[in-house]
Amino acid sequence: MKKFSIFNRKKKIRMSEGKKPLIENNNNIQDGHDCAGHGWENPLAQNSFNTAEEQSMQRQQSISLMELVQHLGVSSESLYNLTEPNLGQQSVIDWSNPQTFKILHKVLQVINSVKQCLQLMDWVQHKYLSREVLFSSDQKLFCEWKDKAKEKLLQSVQKEIRESLDKILQNETGIAASCIEEDYIKLYVDTIQCINAVPREAQNLLPELHDEVQEICFQEFRTFVKRYSEEQYVDLKKRAETDNPETIHFLKTLKTCKELRKYAQTTGTGVTPSLVKETVETLENLEQSTLTFLMEIITVIAENHFKDFFRSDSNLNHFLDSVYNHFPTRPYVMDEQKVVVDEAYKIIARTYLEHLITNKQRTLKGRWTPNIGERIHEDANHLHKSISLLAPGVDEWHKMLLGIEEVLDCTSIDALKLIMGRLQQDYFTQSEDFKLLNKLLKWKGLSSGDVNEVLDALPGSESRPICRSCFSCLTCW
């Protein structure tokens, strides 16, 4: 008990002073005066001074208690009646420590808020105990009261934080497509302010309780994050299944998850690690689910467009307009929008390639132009220029399509191996991508032997599945 160690030292100093010689150091006593200028004709005068000073301090602390009680909104008359009937008729300077702690216990029972608890505990530790000498028989009173006060405080913290976070979640009823920035950031800003407020106040008044208060707040924060995640998952899943989902709802969820995750990782350093870890993982899972929903939306748009795109003489403008309509053009969403567009661009470029190689070159030359590579080049640059307007600095996935032009125009097997190796390293890193590369080489018009020679030169070729057509060259025994 840190406070008691301080008070015990004070008591020991005063008691030991009473056992010192009357004149311990002649240099400090001159003509009945000490160096501070107090006139003591004899030791009894000094004792009388100490008694008067202590009475003055007691009077000040007693009055301050009643002022605090009034400030807390507690009826002083009810405190008198429920503790000692005649206490209200006594002078406050006559109150003993037991009487004072009876009042303090009653105050604990009637106050309800965290702020009231902190103010009361602050007064006891920093006002009352700094002036009042607690004797050994009274220390138990303080210990009992302090334990009750701490219990009351932590219960109040849990109740208030839970109610505040519930209200924040209830107010999250969705945002309109024309939402302003305040709507976009409101949920995570309100949540962080709510979690921060009580630990900050505890740090100012009672620093020794900061960690325990913060732990309670983070427990409620974890519960809030779980509820938010479950509700958002259901809401976004429904939105993703509609005909024309507004991506701003998804972007807002990504922003909220990112900011709450950063807050948990930076501010929760003094909190139980498993508590922070669980909170962060819940937010990461919701982020991933949100991105998945968005990519499903983009995939549907791309599939619906490109299945007809190569069967007509149309350009990419209609498709790009459709993509644009799904993204808001607001500066405060750009960070999240870039993350989404980076992933979407990858899907768009790959979908373009997959549908391209399902159409015969002879057919494409009749619909487009004899130089298919030139048309692919134009589409790639048009795609990149348009998508860059949605998200400046987006990854350059059009270079994958420019690489397809190189594959189409290449006449050397050795050079083709280098081109395919670069494409694999940059854009086709998964083992299942070997199937797509195989189709691309066949679409180019290579023989089965040349296809296998090129694929065998690529990293990871030893683990690729053997094509059925390869067995046709084996001799039956």
Which sequence of strands runs across the widest sheet?
1-2
Helix fraction by DSSP (H/I, runs of at least 4): over 70%
Number of helical runs? 18
Distance between the termini: 92 Å
For the largest beta-sheet, the strand count, sense and barrel status come to: 2 strands, antiparallel
Number of strands: 2
Mean pLDDT: 80
The proportion of residues in beta strands is under 5%
Please identify the structural class as seen in this structure. mainly alpha
Order of helices and strands: HEEHHHHHHHHHHHHHHHHH
Number of domains: 3
**Roughly how many Å is the radius of gyration?**
38 Å
Unreliable residue stretches: 1-63, 85-94, 467-477
**Shape category:** elongated
List keywords for this structure.
477 residues, mainly alpha, 3 domains, two-stranded antiparallel sheet, 18 helices, 2 strands, 71% helix, elongated, disordered C terminus
Can you offer a commentary on this structure?
It is a single chain. This protein is mainly α and 477 residues long. The protein folds into 3 domains: 2-12 and 39-152, no CATH class; 159-289; 292-461. Helix content is 71%, strand content 1%. It has 18 helices and 2 strands. It has helices spanning 2-17, 43-71, 76-83, 97-110, 114-131, 136-170, 181-205, 210-240, 248-267, 273-309, 317-325, 334-356, 361-367, 372-390, 398-409, 413-427, 433-444, 448-456, and strands at residues 29-30, 33-34. It has a two-stranded antiparallel ribbon with strand order 1-2.
